[in-house]
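Are you able to produce any protein sequence you like plus the matching backbone structure tokens because I've never seen that pairing?
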Amino acid sequence: MPNHTLHWVSRATEWSEPDLSILDNSRDVVPPVPLDLVSEPWRKWIVDTASATGAPQDYVLQTVLAGVAGVCGAGVRVHVTPAWTEPLVMWLAMVGEASTGKSAALAPMRRLLGTIEQERCLRDEERRATHAEQVKQGREDWPFVPSRVVMTDTGLQAAAQTVTGNRRGVLLWRDLPKVWFGDDCVDDKECAAWLEAWTAGPLTVERSRLPALDLASFPVSVLQTMWPDSLKAALLEGDKSLPIRFLYVWPGPQDHRALAGLDPVRDDEVLERLRRLSSLARTPDDPCELRFDERGVKALDRFLTDLHAARQSAEGLEAAWLGKSRAFIVRLAGILELLGMTGGPRGRPGAIGSEQVDAAVALWRGYFWPHARAVFDSAELSDHKRRVRRVARWLRDTRLPTVSRREISRRALSQAATADETEHVLQRLHYLGYVQPDPAYRDKSGRPSTHWLVNPALTEQKSGSETSEIQKSR
């Protein structure tokens, strides 16, 4: 039996400050967007768009990365060695509670990509005529697919059919509470198909009463919003192969931004640069190549050495995510080179050298990795830590001066924990400054207390519902 010996206090008034960090989803502080790594005019556009929409800069950064991936896709490949190339396909996640600015951050880039899509559609007439002739000759058996940059349908067949008319790929755009990690997959074969989307690999989709769709390349980028609770459930219960391919951002509460004195958002500059990137990208079988030079390869080698060591010491989802990070770095280096090209006098991208690799590593190591760790740590929170947080919140919200162990078990934990587990929770809360054994119920030495005093400082904390409303208004 575990040792429940407690340190008895001499007076009930001797309280330490309670550790309030356990009330806040057990999340460490995550770093802000490293704007110095983003070239102009993208940097200013991120800042101004975030200020104008009241959204975190983190979310706007994700839309920039998604926008570049959306117009380029497999039409641009990053060439590291003859045996290693990566498409500019990105899977990006914006994590946050309801009303934290996710949809507001999405809207500006969605409008810009809509303009790019409309301009592409104006050039569809020649493709449409060719398609009609092929149908007439019996060489084509599915409807004409117009030019698309963005799609919202997560059905595999719908995505594959869209890619048949958009060979460089499409951007799957999701702004819904429910997290999508291939949830529409009916079997392992369909889930494997979505993995091909991340690598722009070949795909065959069987269709009922119709010939199969054979794609030499199936590039699909993803940008989606995620509510934390839905994300945790998906990470704990679902297949892990898709989640570890996402770059996550999960910013904390934001400061209020005054509306007065805001700089106008220069959408026209960013739109022009998206147009240039769209014109630069070609097709999967003849892509625009961004090649690593010798300095870039050496810089990447240094990073891969560090990454190998980091992965050996990591566990669970984080270790699996680190395993995909070699691809993240290469793709980020390619995107940063394109952002720099469109922001400077150069009309074509150059070689990817140590500068681009070092910038990609800094963005990954100093920003995306801490955010991913926050996501995975939250999902992998132990049952004991969950109980401690749940009881701590219950004590704060009920504001009772004293509680019994039985009350904790029945009311705070809904009888979902054993007596021993409940006792461990109380001992932990005692250490954290939330409760003390009630001297009025002092039992024999070495026996756990049955009643506990609650730290009066908790009555000064806002209740859970009040806190939730404040967070939602941010």
User: Anything to note?
Assistant: The longest strand covers residues 73-81. The chain has 16 helices and 13 strands. The CA atoms of residues 297 and 375 lie 31 Å apart.
